[in-house]
Amino acid sequence: METLDVSDGFDVHEYRHGLKLHRQDGESMYLVNRADFACPACERPFDRLFVSSAREVTFANPPDAPFCLVRTPDRLLLLTH
Ligand SMILES: [Zn+2]
User: Quick one: CA torsion of 42, 56, 75, 28, rounded to 10 degrees?
Assistant: First the structure.
């Protein structure tokens, strides 16, 4: 299982072969994990990945699952399990 590498930021293009783009709006992307990538925070496989370069993000509905947060210098990642 490959863990997303965020040690030098996060580039979604490195993982696009296994991440299906579900939705994109402005500075944010919602992706589905199709390749059993592992979460960089807890090292378990995740279901969905939210990536944003926005400074502020609001979620109207909280994830209905455990989730992890990962930050890079210019991105926020939210991974649900
Ligand atoms: Zn996690």
Answer: 100
**Rg of the chain taking only CA atoms, in angstroms:** 12
CA 19–ligand 1 middle distance (angstroms): 16
Q: Give residue-wise pLDDT tens across range 10-27.
A: 999 999 999 999 999 999
Distances (CA, A) of 24 to 3, 49, 50: 23, 12, 10
Name the residue ranges covered by the structural domains of the chain.
Answer: 12-80
What are phi and psi for residue 59, nearest 5 degrees?
Answer: -110, 120
